[in-house]
Write a structure and sequence with these properties.
heterodimer, A: alpha/beta, Aspartate Aminotransferase, domain 1, Aspartate Aminotransferase, domain 2, 7-stranded mixed β-sheet, 4-stranded antiparallel β-sheet, B: alpha+beta, Alpha-Beta Plaits, 5-stranded antiparallel β-sheet, 5 strands, 26% strand, binds pyridoxal-5'-phosphate
Amino acid sequence: MIYFDNAATSWPKPPQVKEAMNRFMEEVGANPGRSGHVLSIEAARMIYEAREALSALFHVKDSSRIVFTLNATESINLALKGLLKYKDHVITSSMEHNSVMRPLRDLEKRGIALTVVPCFEDGTLDPREVEKQIQSTTRMIVLNHASNVTGTLLPVREIGKIAREYNLLFLVDAAQTAGAYPMEVDKDGIDLLAFSGHKSLYGPQGTGGLVIGERINEKEMIPLKQGGTGSRSEFEEQPDFLPDRLESGTPNGVGIAGLLAGVQFVLEKGVEQIRQKEITLIEKLIKGLKEIPQVKLYGPESHKDRMATLSFNFTHLSPSDGASHLEKEFGILCRPGLHCAPAAHHTIGTFPEGTIRFGLSIFNTGTDIETAIQAISQISKER
Amino acid sequence: MRESRPFDQAMKCVFIFESIHRVMKAEKLLKGKGIKIDLVPVPREISSDCGVAIELSTDSEKEACLLLGENKVSILECYARGPEGRFEKKVEIKI
Ligand SMILES: Cc1ncc(COP(=O)(O)O)c(C=O)c1O
């Protein structure tokens, strides 16, 4: 079996992730920050180390400015709903995932103005098109770092500069890049970085987070939920400091233990090295598939503009039929359809049928790629 | 219930922090510098909160305060423990 659905969630995970989760369940298991006993303290130490490891990865100075969430979707919702106010104008791109589009469309009904800047057919975006849309009421730019449909990288650093120049908030959806592409939150001009823990950070499902940049006043940020934090228990109001302000209730201790092991795995391997390996794999795949006339590829060709995620279609088969052949005849697991990103499929011209998507990870091999090219070649000859 | 720790120890002081995150950061910094500390439940006389505090000998109090100050870990409150085990708030500490 070959797993090519890493853009949804990575699998397998490094063995140390499972071991860390097991260890947490067997030896720690307690609620951090809620009492002074040894197990509670041990849980708090683990969560502190997880924030520190993520800070090292994203170059964040103060790790208390990283809050844990269930997934990137929750992080994006927290950033948007926690900061946007009535009549604010927001700019986003036409390559966004529904985790950005749906909350924005909902906020639009509640009096927020939204501009969706069109991207090119390969998913790339001209930063000047974003700049042109800035108005006096513009408050935030929201952008995915890389598309989950085509793997296209968006010009985050350039747009970060524009955001700083116009004093706008900049929210980046790094679900597809965190752990697989180098980033420095402040240098890249990012104010809010939403990430999944369960994709290229190799943690378990149910983990994610939001980095809250230094330019954000956390006291003005409205939490998605309020509740127990273990701190300031004598007061009935939510604390105004991070991370407690935005983290209520018992955290996902076992998940965060796994995420910590995943982030340590990424730090040990090195993001640059991971990227190099993934680029080698995706280039090999693109090169092989380009030779097959019954296959149409989407997204940019140059590795500089992309992640190791590729969308393609058979000219004679629907995406779901193609994926079904790949699984039944060749044991290749992938994802057909719209990938929760209708806007992106409109942009690349594949709405409503969608595409077949291969999302690679560091655990895929050159042999996996060769097998896949052969399988696709064979399927394309079947009719 | 009275404090279960023996009273015949050296004079101790207790640092209280805003959040568990700060306690963890402080612990790492202080232990990293070889300062002997204990993580203890926040004494009931001090706060009804259920958190963790850092207890250390008054001999290393100054060095600890300096180190935490340099690293922007602010101490919310500092208490000294008297010979009978009673806690007294020290107001002069402000970083
Ligand atoms: C670009 C993008 N944004 C957001 C998400 C949502 O991530 P999560 O499943 O962690 O909520 C995904 C993944 O599905 C994604 O690919």
